[in-house]
Amino acid sequence: MMAGMLKQEYTKQQKIVTLAAVDFAWISRKERVYKSLWNHVLLIYQTLDATLRPRDKEARLQELARTRPEVDFFLRLEQRLFPWIQVRRKTSLSLHESFHGRGFVFCGGDKQFQMMVTSIQSLRLKLHSRLPIQVFFMGEKDLSAKRQDYLRRMTHNIEVLDITQHLDNDYLRLKGWAIKPFAILASKFEEAIFIDADAYFLRTPELLFDDPGYKATGSLFFYDRTILPGWRKGPDWIRANQPFMSNIPQNSRSFRGATAHEQESGVVLINKKWRLPALLSVCKMNSFWERDLSVYQTFYGDKETFYIGFEIIQEPYAFVRNYGGVIGELKPEDDQSICGAQMHLDYQGRPLWWNSGLVKNKNNDDYRDLYFGYWMSGGGNQTNRELVIRDEDMKIKLAYELDLDFVDDLPPPEEPVDPVWDYMRGCMGGWKVEVLSEDEAERANSYVVMDRISKRAESLISQDQVVDPKSDWESFR
User: Fold this and answer.
1) What element of type H or E holds 340?
2) Element (H, E) at 133
3) For residue range 102-146, what is the model confidence (pLDDT) as tens digits?
4) Which burial class, exposed, middle or buried, applies to 438 when counting CB atoms under 10 A from its CB (0-12, 13-18, 19+)?
5) What is the H or E stretch that residue 425 is in?
6) Domain 97-320 superfamily per CATH
7) Are strands 219-223 and 359-361 parallel, antiparallel or unpaired?
8) Rounded to an integer, what distance in angstroms lies between the CA atom of residue 239 and that of residue 270?
9) Boundaries of CATH 3.90.550.10 in the chain?
10) Helix 24-46 × helix 305-313 angle, to 10°
């Protein structure tokens, strides 16, 4: 079996029509073996002379492989599973060593430029975040040189990087959503917050580093809205390819047939020093062969690949307990429903961020400016979440409130009935309508004003005119 794990399944120049399918159950087994070896070989790598440069450490490790069979097998298995890492390095261990600090990761091309500019400037000029930012794109045909220049000049502490210079794109053949986990991987940060180009925050994203689930697991994900019930293809794929799994997917809405999508990947937190093998597993699901022959035929893009990638390699992860809700304006004919963008809460139940941009409903080609005044929770099953985040203080408080003698007597939280999401109209009802605070409403609606500056910049760049990003944003400084 071990020799079979080193078999080369495809080459970088091979055409996809020459391979009928990808055996993900077999890939899962190989990745779990890889993870065990990775933990072992990492300790060996860390004992090498600290004064050596990373490439010299890698050379020393390759020398060790001549006499250490487990090191040799690890290096060969990694090359088979993740060959795209090896552009500027020989192993993932030097990549792991390079991570440091915290920061934001974005990715986008010309089509996402306007939204991305507004999202980044909202962090800098309204939320006053000073964390470094790295923006990744897929070659100059993806993001033009003038747009790259605008991004670099419009704010401080930002890098705009071509991901094909960091990973071997001949293997990956990246397109669309698939770039997202690779951007997280290629970023220099130890603790990375990935943010979609059309995602916006009401409060600084750095608050997520204090989330108890993130502190416990080194990762943090958000649930998608409850939508399109009765979809079985995804759960069936997971059962077939991942017979051993945690209780989270088994108790999920998608496994019960309540929704089609479990995860929303508009914001993702990963501590890469802690969870690098899991991130590599996510990337594997978004690699060319795996995504085109299997994953993207089953799931809607990259969404589910984050938590499933963690499941495959058996690493822990946490979800913020609430399902995707809504932020925006009251439905004209029903003041108990809200129309707008998908919104997400923090672990304390306050609105934190939303995605789908600043217009009323891009899914139905309604591009009028959205008014942000109200929000509604998407409900949520807290059972699995609290298994991770219930600390002793929380348990004691809950037991006291319920007049229980022992914390072990605490019952699992009841699952609420989920609100109903109307996808085409972009509206949600069936839950309590909440009003944004004055500060929250002012901040959210100010992003609509900021977006007009981004739109003007995009228009001028597309007409090949000169744009000064510093003067563009002077009124917001």
Assistant:
1) strand 334-345
2) strand 133-137
3) 999 999 999 999 999 999 999 999 999 999 999 999 988 999 999
4) exposed
5) none
6) Spore Coat Polysaccharide Biosynthesis Protein SpsA; Chain A (3.90.550.10)
7) unpaired
8) 25
9) 97-320
10) 70
